[in-house]
Specification:
Elements (H helix, E strand, L loop, with lengths): L2 H12 L5 H5 L4 H11 L19 E3 L34 E3 L22 H28 L3 H13 L7 H14 L4 H9 L2 H6 L13 H11 L7 H10 L3 E3 L5 E3 L9 E3 L2 E3 L3 H9 L2 H15 L6 H13 L4 H10 L16 H11 L3 E2 L3 H9 L22 H15 L6 E2 L13 H4 E2 L5 E2 L3 H7 L7 H9 L6 H11 L4 H13 L8
Antiparallel strand pairs: 1-2, 3-4, 5-6, 7-10, 8-9
Helix pairs in contact: 1-3, 4-15, 6-7, 9-10, 10-11, 12-13, 13-14, 17-22, 20-22, 21-22
Length: about 525
């Protein structure tokens, strides 16, 4: 494996693929790795006005049903519903007003909390659309970051933690806060990341810790922290789950979505957890968990499977896990050791990773410098392929690996380049999901059609090809785009697609053909 091939492998695994200008820079893999870390040093939160949505639980509306037991706050006037005369225009949907608009602005001041049961069908529809739009905008903004940001390693590691700390809530602001927490600590110390994530309102809600009180402990949060986030099954007992749940009693959040420790609901009694006894708090439990060697092995294995190979190699993992634990769970140090190892570039680890839908689409956009007019169809195709950012299938996240591929998803994957760059007609009806933010859509509403408006600049690729003869350009571009070796019969098909075309059209046809090969699904 030569230096250029190693460089491409590194860019695909530590980011979302190399651009022509990255290859032209001629860095060695070691220098490129240093550059990746340097470019990812700074934390920049994902922010934007379109990403925010006011949590419905922090709002009220002027609907009599919700005011039945609560007097109308001062300054508001209500009138009974009157039937509209025939032919009159439809009345506008009643607005949902923020709590701050009312005098006092709190439940204690007589302002009721909004309940979905109080909403009219029209208001529920408006609410669903507002929430859905915020999540769409969040996904669009993050996909743009993955495709264009120089902080490739931070973006890739944030994607890993997004699956590791899988969380699905209806509140976009809470989901965005959790996302930015994982983004902030993505390359830092894992104990800091774990504590910060564990105190995020989105995670506390998703894993039911709001209901975890000393009189009635709820074990869900404690169980998932150990099973999915830190130790893995077999490294704790059912009694450890019960005792940890007691330690996490009182961990909650307020109406402003800030973490709040409710001391009156906390069980301050003696607990025995993982062989230790004391009046442990939730913070104590997290520290004790990370004292277990099994935690370092569990985390290292999961990171290895994401970045190196879906089949763990204990000979590689054990030394990494020991170093990870000794470093105080330094994530950046672990990644540097992993990407610097000779075995990282062994043939068994190159071109063997099935790209997730996010990696596939972000990779196409990044490696070819593609500009998109309308990202919404891309999000639809991404969802059809099985990955909807901020909406994992369950608390375990996306299974990944071979689970990304089946007969229907492979067909769509192979058609995507033609959809993007040749405006091929390929409509996909998304499956109904009872957990959808806006459920019960018609088939027409669930159908995704082309319309991304993808712009493919050829100049960077022409510079990469230089003076390469036209007959050799498919092979040269294949070396740039593909991590797996192209089969001779597939190369012949690519060459035929570009034959007897003008140079620019030949280059475009070559690109679409290469991107449509099964080999392009691998990194």
């Amino acid at each position: 494996m030569n230096s250029a091939q190693q460089l491409q492998h590194l860019y695909w695994r530590a980011g979302f693929g190399p651009r022509p200008q990255d290859v032209a820079a001629g860095l060695s893999p070691r220098k490129a790795l240093r550059q990746l870390f340097h470019d990812s040093e700074n934390y920049e939160p994902l922010v934007g006005r379109d990403l925010n949505y006011t949590d419905p639980q922090g709002m009220v509306m002027t609907d009599p049903a919700s005011l039945k037991n609560n007097p109308v706050p001062t300054g508001m006037v209500t009138t009974p519903d009157q039937p509209a005369p025939p032919g009159a225009p439809a009345s506008p949907v009643a607005p949902i007003r923020p709590r701050a608009a009312f005098k006092g602005g709190t439940v204690a001041a007589g302002v009721p909390r909004l309940r979905r049961a109080d909403l009219t069908p029209e208001q529920r529809k408006m609410q669903n659309e507002g929430i859905r739009d915020a999540f769409v905008n969040m996904s669009t903004a993050w996909m743009e970051r993955m495709a264009t940001s120089p902080a490739q390693l931070r973006e890739k590691m944030t994607l890993f933690w997004h699956g590791h700390f899988a969380c699905r809530v209806r509140q976009p602001d809470a989901a965005l806060s959790l996302h930015n927490t994982t983004r902030q600590y993505a390359l830092g110390k894992f104990p800091d990341l774990l504590l910060a994530v564990s105190k995020e309102p989105a995670m506390l809600q998703f894993l039911n810790n709001q209901q975890n009180r000393k009189e009635h402990p709820n074990e869900n949060f404690a169980r998932e922290v150990m099973e999915l986030f830190t130790l893995g099954r077999g490294n704790y007992t059912e009694n450890d789950v019960k005792e940890a749940a007691r330690a996490f009693t009182g961990w909650a959040y307020d109406y402003q979505s800030n973490f709040k420790f409710r001391e009156r609901e906390h069980d301050a009694g003696t607990k025995t957890f993982l062989g230790k006894t004391g009046n442990f708090t939730g913070e104590d439990v997290l520290k004790i968990i990370l004292e277990q060697p099994a935690a370092a092995t569990f985390l290292t294995t999961k990171i290895y499977r994401f970045f190196v190979n879906d089949v763990p190699n204990p000979a590689h993992i054990e030394p990494l896990a020991v170093a990870f634990r000794k470093s105080g769970y330094d994530i950046a140090d672990l990644l540097e050791r992993m990407f610097s190892a000779d075995w990282f570039y062994e043939p068994a680890n190159v071109g063997t990773h099935i790209k997730s839908p996010v990696e596939l689409l972000a990779g196409i956009r990044r490696t070819l410098n593609v500009k998109i007019d309308n990202a919404q169809p891309l999000l639809g195709y991404q969802r059809a392929l099985g990955q909807n950012l901020f909406q994992p299938p369950n608390v375990a996240g996306w299974p990944g690996g071979r689970n990304w591929i089946d007969s229907s998803s492979l067909l769509l994957r192979l058609q995507l380049p033609s959809i993007l760059f040749k405006n091929a007609e390929f409509a996909v009806a998304l499956k109904q999901d009872e957990n959808d933010i806006a459920p019960n859509q018609t088939k027409a509403e669930r159908t995704v059609r082309p319309g991304a408006g993808a712009h493919l600049p050829l100049a960077p690729l022409q510079q990469l090809l230089g003076a390469t003869p036209a007959t050799q350009q498919p092979e040269k571009l294949g070396e740039f785009l593909l991590q797996a070796n192209i089969r001779p019969e597939n190369l012949q098909l690519v060459q035929q697609a570009a034959a007897q075309k003008e140079p620019a059209e030949a280059l475009r046809a070559t690109l679409v053909s290469l991107l449509s090969l099964p080999e392009y699904q691998l990194a």
